[in-house]
Amino acid sequence: MRFMYIVTSPQPNRGPTPALMEAMHKLADREIKAGRMLDSGGLLPVSLGAQVKIRDGKLSVVDGPFVETKELIGGYAIFELRDKEEAVASAVEFMQLHKEHMPGWEGTCEVRSFAEPGAEMACQVDAQVAS
Amino acid sequence: MPADINRTILAVWRNEQPRLITSLSRMLRDVPLAEDLTQEALVAALEHWPATGVPEKPGAWLMATAKRRALDHLRRGKMLAHKHGMVARDLEQEQQAMPDLDAALDDDIGDELLRLIFTACHPLLSQEARAALALRMICGLTTEEIARAFLVPEATVAQRIVRAKRTLSESGLAYETPRGDALSERLASVLEVVYLIFNEGYTAARGEHWLRPQLCHDALRMGRVLTSIAPHEPEAHGLLALMELNASRIAARTDKAGDPILLMDQNRALWDRLQIRRGMLALAQAGQLGGAGGFYALQAAIIACHATASAADETDWRRISGLYAGLAKLVNSPVIELNRAVAIGMAEGPAAGLAIVERLAGEPTLKAYHLLGSVRGDLLHRLGRYREARDAFEAAAQLAGNSRERDLLQRRAAQAADAAGLSSSA
């Protein structure tokens, strides 16, 4: 089964500490070598992006920054794993690194199953780590 | 609920298992023994964690437990304890502190993992035993899961594993890593097993059980591991490319009832773009390493022609027939030649394809092969030689192994007969 991990945080201005960057890099390297991680990426601040919206039947393009966003997506990763339990276990390991290397940070790693044949229903599991 | 925590424990254990087994095999200089002891660590977790909950650093807990077992084992054997006195002392010091997360991440397991895979896939073992050991040691499948995946009794798999481990220990092959030329030579045996596991899952078109498609995923994982620990071996990349590209079509290969859909009739929107991208990258890597003409790379390049054609009629058949010609030079096989005939028939027209097929008609290995008659019938039909086409399809139907294929060939024979009737009355 394929999973996407989406990391969100209400604290947009806190980039990862160098220690966290290094730990995440090592973890990613290990997971790629183990054939489990397929893809990953970090996203630039939302203020540099744009939103294309449909509202009241009208299409509009809005450049950042945006006012109403509460939880910001900082990055994503795609894993291929056997089941939800494996996905949660590895998300917990990933968030554990945040807890250790970036005290005070709060955020969520959302674990979402890809809709594909064999994946029972799309399931949503939040592994919330707050410290 | 106990069932839930057991699933969680198994998931954590599978995440950690390759690192556990590689660390232990380095300590013990014995891969099969290391595997036994990692199983013991799992049993310990299953005993303790339901009461205590999953520890904050489950990997460290499992590693500490497994290493303690290994130390006990080293102490038990007096000879070994003497021989590995130094090792044991070092480890005991290391043991003072619980290994932390960062140390676990620093542990470069590449070399040990390579040894693990090459031990599990030793050419001395039968193909079935290699497949079972590899799935168990590298992917963390239980004996029961392997048995279900290969549709054989659990006792058979258990016995295969026990016998294979004994063979390895008795031949003194429990801990060795091939290097240089030996590595390339031995790699063939590893790739063969990985491909066998992949095909076992892939050819089970009907996914009665999730474990059979799971075999594809496990083979892909091993393929990815191989390219990361033996990055200079072009055929490792070639095999990975072949598997990624084939697996990209899994969602499109069967209809709702589970009946197979032929490649040319598949809905290409259902093909997995991420997987195709990864397959193309691996194929490019094989080429950069000078391996574009390898057995797996050539097959991957053929599949790549399909994967990159946005519609069936955009397929580059000329390139495909050239790749089959390359493959035929490597492996002298009439089946490959028959595939080349199909490609030539698409690239240059049915007459050119038929010329190759007629040359194959005398091949003893193809005498009972229904696809020869099927391909021949198709080419004849396209040439307007309907009567001969009908005869070819009918003969092929007689040889077809399963009813679904037989029905299809009989339908095609009837179409050819209709066409023959029309053309003779016109």
Judging from the principal axes of the Cα atoms, what is the shape of chain B?
Answer: elongated
Give the helices and strands of chain A as they follow along the chain.
EHEEEEHEE
User: How large is the radius of gyration of chain B?
Assistant: 26 Å
- How does the overall form of chain A come out from the CA principal axes? globular
Q: What is the chains' assembly state?
A: heterodimer
Percent range of helical residues of chain B: over 70%
Measure the end-to-end span of chain B: 76 Å
Query: Can you summarize the main beta sheet of chain B?
Result: none
Annotation, overall tally of beta strands of chain B = 0
Distance between the termini of chain A: 31 Å
Determine the number of helices of chain B (DSSP H or I, runs of at least 4 residues): 21
CATH topology of chain A: Alpha-Beta Plaits
Enumerate how many helices of chain A there are, as a single number.
2
Task: Tell me the greatest interface.
Answer: A-B, 27 and 36 residues
Summarize the topology.
The complex is a heterodimer of chains A (131) and B (426).
Chain A: E1 2-9, H1 18-33, E2 37-42, E3 50-55, E4 58-63, E5 72-80, H2 84-101, E6 106-113, E7 124-130
Antiparallel strand pairs in A: 1-5, 1-6, 2-5, 3-4, 6-7
Helix pairs in contact in A: 1-2
Chain B: H1 2-28, H2 31-52, H3 58-76, H4 78-83, H5 85-96, H6 101-106, H7 110-120, H8 127-139, H9 143-150, H10 154-170, H11 180-202, H12 211-229, H13 234-247, H14 273-288, H15 295-307, H16 317-330, H17 334-347, H18 350-360, H19 370-382, H20 386-399, H21 403-425
Helix pairs in contact in B: 1-2, 1-3, 2-3, 3-5, 7-8, 8-10, 8-11, 9-10, 9-12, 11-12, 11-13, 12-13, 13-14, 13-15, 14-15, 15-16, 16-17, 17-18, 18-19, 19-20, 20-21
